[in-house]
Amino acid sequence: MLFNPPQIEITDCDMPECEALVEKDVRAAFLRWRDLYRTHIPRTIDRPLWEWSSALARVAGVTDSYPQAVHHEICDFVDEVVSHADFFEDAPSLIANVLHILSSCLLLRPEELKRLKLRRDEARADLEEKFIGLFVKICRIIWTHRCLLLSKGNFDTSTFGTMALVQDKLHVMLMVYYTIRASNELLDDCGAPFRTDVFVHPGHEDVRRIALLLWFHYDNTQEVKNREEFGAYSEDTIYWIKESTEALGSGREMEAFILSDILSEYGARRFLARLAVSLQRIAPFAGRDLDAILWIIRFITLRPEFVDHLATCGVLKNLHGALSRLIHEVNDEGKTKGIILKTLFVYSGVAARASIPNGRAVIIRQCDVVGLLASVTLYVTKMQLFDFMKECSDYIDDYVSFSKFMCERHSRNNVLRKSLTQSVRNHWYRTLQMLRSYRSTFSRDVIVHHRAIEGPWLALGNALGLDEEREAAEYEREKKRMAQYCSRTACQYHETKPPMPPNVCKGCGDARYCSKTSAKRLEGRS
User: Fold this and answer.
1) Does any domain span residue 456?
2) At a CB cut-off of 8 Å and minimum separation 6, what does 210 contact?
3) Is-contact 421 364, C-beta < 8 A?
């Protein structure tokens, strides 16, 4: 039932008295609020209760305002409140304030979190367990009322608030929960690994359902990240979903989670489309979040129910974009190498398991798999990752074999063969040229490894009948044509000639820019 305020309105509220008591004696203010709540008639306009709730919520933002004894009393009372069947049918602003007051009992600033990792007293541990048990209960209730949580409401939102307020406070509670569970195991401030089984406890399924619900419909992570108390754990919701799901392994519980919590609630295509949005928004330096999405793709979506939609829903295209940003902007060889391997594994898995129209055809035409292989080949060669060159060349060999298959079975007019040939032409000669330029700087020992990756790349073009001399001439013609335009894609002169010939970049000698603005943008990108 949606909140629909009746004509009953209680307006007797002395706000100065309320604020004075909150500042003077927060426990007395809490007891007064508790008494007001116990006499409250659900779904009525109860301004005294609303004002007291708002005042307590404002104070709750300061972590040391509540004595620890009051924290336990708050948890006990909120447990009593949420147990009422009509709690989530009340005014959204009231629900949001109750959730905020509860989560503030456990909020910790980064410096407090450091102290807590050194010494966690028994009282704090008891409070955390009480909060987790209560949060599980709230998640279970909200899941039952999820239609209400996602509703817009047909009432005066300026007076009663919106369910977006509730969603926001619920998101904060979720982050408090993950912070508590992770801080019990985290070894230092550098993001040391912790056991994922800390997220497995009675009711953990209810928490994961709400985490998925918030991520899918209302991912407020960026705003939560900017709050001081979450500075130590500023990962996206999708990262925590991965951490709490990873402990399931690949057994029956994982199967049940995929079938009941993902497929039946969201459907394969909608879930993958939302995953594609997360990939599109991901920051280059958020390597752990990208790694989390890759884990979900590998262990959840490389299944018959999902695999035919992975490419068509934009996941692979946006994964390519996220990887490109990582390669160009993050100077962390170990992290980048791991993500490259997982990305190639996903592309290969879709090509092998999906039907050709939904797999290789989309990967070639829309996801630029050849461009992905080209950028990975250049990165591996430039960074001299010899142990990775064999795996990279294996992925290129796969497309060499597929190219030969297409040439043997289909004519030159075949649509997919034409798309594959054009895609290879777009990258083949330029990549070959750069590989050879790298070789001139390598020692004799390194050249042996270099040939192991240059050979398959050369074979890819040969399999499709590309001639190196013709491609070189075409490359130079295209290079001269592009020299007339600004290299910055967002510039108005990227596809039309500028009034004056563009200047050459002094750094790379390749890029062109038409103005100081474009020059700065190109310099920042490089």
Assistant:
1) yes
2) 139, 142, 143, 170, 174
3) no
Higher pLDDT, 400 or 299: 400
Quick one: 100 and 176 in the same domain?
Answer: yes
* Structural domain range at position 526: 486-526
| Residue 385 and residue 508 in one domain | no
For the stretch 379-387, contacts whose Cβ atoms lie closer than 8 Å and that sit 24 or more positions apart, written own/partner, are 379/327, 379/336, 379/340, 380/340, 380/453, 381/435, 381/438, 381/450, 381/453, 382/438, 383/333, 384/442, 384/446, 384/449, 385/333, 385/337, 386/446, 386/449
Beta-bridged to residue 513, according to DSSP, are 503
Q: In the structure, what pLDDT confidence band is assigned to residue 56 with cuts at 50, 70 and 90?
A: confident
d(CA 307, CA 502): 45
The single residue listed with the structure tokens 């147990």 is: 83
Which pTM was predicted? Answer: 0.83
Nearest one of 139, 62, 49, 167 to 105, comparing CA atoms: 62
HEC string of 85-111 equals: CCHHHCCHHHHHHHHHHHHHCCCCCHH
Mean pLDDT computed over 357-378: 94
Query: Domain for residue 52, yes or no?
Result: yes
Q: DSSP per residue over 287-308, as a string?
A: HHHHHHHHHHIIIIISSHHHHT
Reduced to 3 states (helix: H, G, I; strand: E, B; else coil), residue 313 is coil
Give the pLDDT band (50/70/90) at residue 188.
very low
Concatenated DSSP letters of 127-171: HHHHHHHHHHHHHHHHHHTHHHHT---SS-HHHH--HHHHHHHHH
Do 408 and 435 reside in the same domain of the chain? yes
| Model pLDDT for residues 268-278, shown as the tens digit of each residue | 999 999 999 98
**Residue 314 in domain:** no
- Domain-embedded: residue 294: no
Overall domain count for the chain? 3
pLDDT at 15 over 80: no
**55 and 83 in a common domain:** yes
CA distances from 229 to 8, 133, 347, 417 (A): 39, 22, 38, 55
Pair 375, 453 in one domain? yes
The token duo for 16 is 């100065």
Mean pLDDT of the chain: 81
Q: Give the C-alpha separation, 186 to 118, whole Å.
A: 11
Please give the Cα distance from 218 to 150 (Å, whole number).
Answer: 9
The yes-or-no verdict on residue 217 having pLDDT over 70 is: yes
